[in-house]
Amino acid sequence: MAETQEQEKSQTRLQSFAEALESGRLVTIRRMVNELHAAEIAHLLESLPPSERELVWEMVEPDKDGDILSYVNDDVRAKLIHQMETDELVAAAESLDTDDLADILQDLPDMVIHEVLQSMSEQDRFRLEAVLSYPEDTAGGLMNIDTVTVRPNVTIDVVLRYLRLRGQLPEMTDYLYVVNRNDKFLGLLSLADIVTKDPGLMVGQVMIHDFEPIPANMSAREVAGLFERRDLITAPVVDDDGRLLGRITIDDVVDVIREEAEHSIMSMAGLDEEDDIFAPVVVSSRRRGIWLGINLITALIASWVIGLFDATIEKVVALAVLMPIVASMGGIAGSQTLTLVIRGMALGHIGSANAKRILTKELAVGGLNGLLWALVVAVVSTLWFGNYMIGVIIAAAMLINLVAAALAGATIPLFMRRMGIDPALSSSVVLTTVTDVVGFFAFLGLATVVLL
Amino acid sequence: MAETQEQEKSQTRLQSFAEALESGRLVTIRRMVNELHAAEIAHLLESLPPSERELVWEMVEPDKDGDILSYVNDDVRAKLIHQMETDELVAAAESLDTDDLADILQDLPDMVIHEVLQSMSEQDRFRLEAVLSYPEDTAGGLMNIDTVTVRPNVTIDVVLRYLRLRGQLPEMTDYLYVVNRNDKFLGLLSLADIVTKDPGLMVGQVMIHDFEPIPANMSAREVAGLFERRDLITAPVVDDDGRLLGRITIDDVVDVIREEAEHSIMSMAGLDEEDDIFAPVVVSSRRRGIWLGINLITALIASWVIGLFDATIEKVVALAVLMPIVASMGGIAGSQTLTLVIRGMALGHIGSANAKRILTKELAVGGLNGLLWALVVAVVSTLWFGNYMIGVIIAAAMLINLVAAALAGATIPLFMRRMGIDPALSSSVVLTTVTDVVGFFAFLGLATVVLL
Asked: Where would I find the CBS domain in this sequence (chains A, B) (predicted)?
């Protein structure tokens, strides 16, 4: 992951902003900001500390406000909205697509929501309510309602004349949706077919019949998988009766994929991907402090295990010197297995059907690496303390701990999922507890039996 | 990340495959396999252990071979190719798009490459060589060459007649590319405009003039950023002289985004996202063993620090019991900062321009959490060992270590990147070394000074 041009550019931009802000060249800043795309401004706002973020936000042209709000993360959005007047908010909200509006609606003050709904046409209000009635992480929550529909019993030529009359198409329109008079979804008519097929043909003859529309209650993640596997750009969303509700576009699916991956990475360190990196110190400290507190419990359990053997340590102080090696090697090996299994589960490669095979394999890998590194550590310890028995003990403890780590790393995430707990968030703490306890117990326990 | 329907379905499928394979119902298996899409078969093959994978691969209809090979990960692909005859490979290779063919070409035996190139038309061979001349992780490596071009000085109506004559368009065609007679890129003509605009207008009047084409040497990651920010579906790729070479489609960009995220997650545990989860035990052990070896060096350094204070530990054995708490809390806090910074860098939020602010903030968070948890640990330790001096010492050591962890977590990734080393892969080992060494040194050092 070497520094790419893109990152450099984004950093250079940030640098020049920082300089312009420091020297108070507000006109320059205003010009620079408004030359950027909404997504780029959103990115910039996320990269700026609060005071400068507020200043830049003031300078953004109002017609971009809505778009930018739909791009920034939840934390930053709440702060930006807090800074805006009611009429600015209403104007911003009115400029948005329904799916984006639905996303930010919950952050808006009640008065604004009321005004926005008032200002909409009845049809739009009806559609927005349709989107809002589905959870954000379902197909219904992801969908937009800007579909263009045609009937099956007209010719391509009629469709072409209708489209020329219409004058323009929503962004990312690759298909028109063919529906009957009750809005029931019948099939897809691609723009490519409209421009390449004989204009005398009927829509019903040309359309794709066998496309299965997406049910509105399908999970966002499943939608993402479908888009990836079928290489879709847009897909129609239908209700339980097969009536067309809207469509999902690939840009929203890319966001789902991106967020899902971010979520895995961040949860494994007890972080939230929607957090503002410049959140006030107290807020960040509280969120992360909870994670530290949970880990402190783990550490105290490990200490308690060590405490059981304090008499042994007092006699052979070399044990205190060597014991962190056993625990830490177990932790590292376990987290490799854990990461592999959590990702495999997220990608659907691993589940109850092949869990046993994965476990067997991971135990073998743990055993083999346990043997290898146990030998190395045994030699080092024997040379260091001039006592081959210490070498034998640490080798045995390490082998035990690496096998335990493989067992724990492979089973904890599956167990967590069965309990309905997010494995990415919770597994690593439990794993550390296991590898610490087993590591210290095996090493100090063996030493107590053998050396005393 | 609760169990989604998609994962359930994929697991159910895997389960029924496993059962069918066990009972040897080969006809059932063949039918089940060939009902799936290529991407779904690829996913299935990745989820099966080697022996069953080979069996299923034998049953796949030959015309799907090429597509499936372009979907599976590098490791699995090499194994599947190994199992195929030359003529099967040639047939599979011939069925692929140039960008996919370019991706798998390096895995093919020389004889197959030769035959595939021989079988191609001169134009296709020329185009394949163009794709091959760019590294896989650049725009040139991602691009496909199935562009449809038009001239600016014809009417929309002429374009429509040309397209009807042509009969079909490549998948994911949202724009035709407007070029001059030397193939220099001039602009974009959307299918949407072709079907909505007055057919008497000239292409040059309707086309989008201000779209900046992608230079062939732009990095894949930068391409992904561009697609995300501008909500693109396809984009033209040009050489240094502005001549059209091909186009990039969103499906390949989604793969880049997915792989980049996988890479971050896997590297942090010293794993490779292209590894086969069912690689032979010896292969997996070797790869992961190296990572364990590197971490063993860290652990030995930590032990050496403890060894410096063995006389102190011998006198106050409570120190041995408590010392892992200081090190592990530092490690957890540091890895939070580290994850935040590595992701911030990958997303372009963090770089040299705002590094100092991030550092200040992280130090403050570390200090605050250090104070809080130092107090808690101090109380616990004092009660446990009935010696308030031990409480004071561990509190001080913990505060020091959490501040050091914040410092290390925020600066190591930036330093690694400057050195040209992948921060996701290397930072965590260095961080652990820092938090272990500082933690043990601060705690045992203070104890030596104060207690003895």
From this structure: 143-206, 207-265
